[in-house]
Amino acid sequence: MGRVVGGRNASPGQIGCAPYPSISPHVASYNDFTVPLTASLIYEILAVNEGLHNCGTFGPQALSALAGHLSKRHISYSAETGSGSSTLLFSHCSDWHTVFSVDSGGGSVVNVKASPLLRADHVFWVEGPTQLTLPTYRFQHKLQAALIDGPHGYPFPDLEYYYLYQHLDTGALLVIDDIQIPTIHNLFEFLKRDQMFVLDEVVDTTAFFTRTDAPTFCPIGDSWWEQGYNKIPLSQV
User: Fold this and answer.
1) What local confidence, expressed as pLDDT, does residue 50 receive?
2) Second label for 99, Cα 20 to 30 Å away, from 120, 125, 132, 183?
3) Rounded to whole angstroms, how far apart are CA atoms 135 and 96?
4) Which ranges of 53-208 would DSSP assign to H, the alpha helix?
5) DSSP one-letter string for 39-72
């Protein structure tokens, strides 16, 4: 079982859900989409990116693209698997950002928490292997942005997708990192053909999708024949 560590009003040991703050849609928030990330803040995050931890980081082009996509949206709730410079960006763009991550000694959690660029009171940490923490977590609100960048071995990227996609709001940003890895490239190819998503762009090895208004694929059903990826059987390829 993962260990839940709070940013704001968190109860240690609670894995069921985060202590979400009350956010009024009628009150302009710090991250209102009309006030995008400042160039100086993005520059500061880019400057610390490479040395933030040694578990692999976003390239500068992909990180800049992430900043651009986030700043175009009003994000009340967001989530990511893995942590790093992306967490620093999310903390300035989201009213309440949930991070599912584990620090295996590379500093991806410890160093991010210690960074003066982290807006810590807007971040909720769920520490532990995502294979254990995501299935037991209970989201209380739709997500306006999500990043999948946790464990890369099969079937873990697919598992993370399963526990996140059903909570994505219409118009939400979905980011998939490291699509050059075959296990993750399979997910990338699936998403490109799925009616729930439209591919916005690929920057380096990071893909940016937007959630459409298509109905959410039933997470406890089957209906594989309705998915675009399965429209052409392998025998016909």
Assistant:
1) 73
2) 183
3) 20
4) 60-71, 85-93, 110-114, 130-136, 156-165, 182-192
5) HHHHHHHHHHHTTS-SS----HHHHHHHHHHHHT
Q: How far apart are CA 204 and CA 149, in angstroms?
A: 15
Residue range 14-61, pLDDT digits in tens: 445 555 444 333 233 333 333 357 888 888 888 876 756 555 567 889
User: Using an 8 Å Cβ cutoff, are 120 and 7 in contact?
Assistant: yes
Length of the chain: 237
The CATH number assigned to the domain with range 3-12+30-236 reads 3.40.50.150
How far is the C-alpha of 221 from the C-alpha of 223, rounded, in Å? 7
User: What is the Rg, in whole angstroms, of the alpha carbon atoms belonging to the chain?
Assistant: 17
Angle between the N-to-C axes of helices 182-192 and 156-165, in degrees from 0 to 180, rounded to the nearest 10:
30
Distance CA 100, CA 228 (A): 29
Closest of 102, 98, 160 to residue 135, by C-alpha:
160
User: What b/e string do you get for 23-38 counting C-beta neighbours within 10 Å, with b at 16 or more?
Assistant: eeeeeebebeeeebbe
Tokens representing 42? 């993005």
User: pTM here?
Assistant: 0.83
For the chain, domain boundaries: 3-12+30-236
